[in-house]
Amino acid sequence: MKDRKRNDRKPKQYPRLTHPMVRDNGVLRRATWEEALDRAAAGFARTTQEYGADAFGMFSCARSTNEMNYVAQKFTRVVMGTNNVDSCNRTCHAPSVAGLSAAFGSGGGTSSYQEVEETDLIIMWGSNARFAHPIFFQHVLKGIHNGARMYAVDPRRTSTAEWADRWLGLNVGTDIPLAHAVGREIIHAGLANTAFIERATSGYEEYAAEVEPWTLAVAEQVTGVPAEAIRELAHAYATAERAQMCWTLGITEHHNATDNVRALINLSLLTGHVGRHGSGLQPLRGQNNVQGGGDMGAIPNRLPGFQDILVPEIRTKFEAAWNTVIQPRYGMNLTEMLDGIERGVLRSVYCIGENPAQSEADCEHTIKRLEMLDHLVVQDIFLTKTAELADVVLPASASWCETDGTATNSERRVQRVRKAISPPGEARDDIAILCDLAARLGHDDWKYADSEEVWNELRAVSPDHYGMTYARLEEHQGIQWPCPSEDRIEPTYLHGRLWEKDPARRGMPAPFGPVKHSPPVDLLDEQFPLRMTTGRRLDSYNTGVQSSGFASPMRRGEYIELSPEDAATYGVEAGEEVRISSRRGDVTAPVWIDPGLRPGLAFMTMHFPDEVDTNQLTIEATCPIAGTAEYKATAVRIDKLAVSV
Question: 289 with 132: CB under 8 angstroms?
Answer without folding.
Answer: no
